[in-house]
Amino acid sequence: MSIAVDAPPAKRQAKVWLCGHPIVVRTAPETESTEFEKAMRRRFAGCRFTNTPHDAPALVAPEAPRPTAP
Predict the structure, then answer these.
(1) Measured between alpha carbons, how far is 33 from 40 in angstroms, rounded to an integer?
(2) Radius of gyration of the chain (CA)
(3) What is residue 21's three-state secondary structure?
(4) Cα separations (Å) of 59 from 2, 15, 43, 70?
(5) Within 13 Å of residue 21, how many CA atoms lie on the same side as its CB?
(6) What are phi and psi of 50, to 5 degrees?
(7) Could you give the 3-state DSSP secondary structure of residue 13?
(8) CA distance 44 to 25
(9) Tens digit of each residue's pLDDT, the chain (70 residues)
(10) What is the SS3 string spanning 23-45?
(11) Domain residue extents for the chain
């Protein structure tokens, strides 16, 4: 069994959400992301939080293009 020594640390993306909009976003290694989430939970107690793998799909779909006037 071998372990990759040069493998980069797993990144996570912590977000603070207010009314369905991310107001704070931080991408960092897993340990830093967890500490950041704890700090933000203390500061923004009434908001929703997510802490997902960085390569996870977005939780909010991109906005569809708006029709243009002819």
Answers:
(1) 10
(2) 17
(3) strand
(4) 35, 11, 23, 33
(5) 3
(6) -135, 150
(7) strand
(8) 13
(9) 555 556 666 889 999 999 889 999 999 998 899 899 999 999 999 999 999 998 755 555 556 566 666 6
(10) EEEEEEEHHHHHHHHHHHHHHCC
(11) 11-53
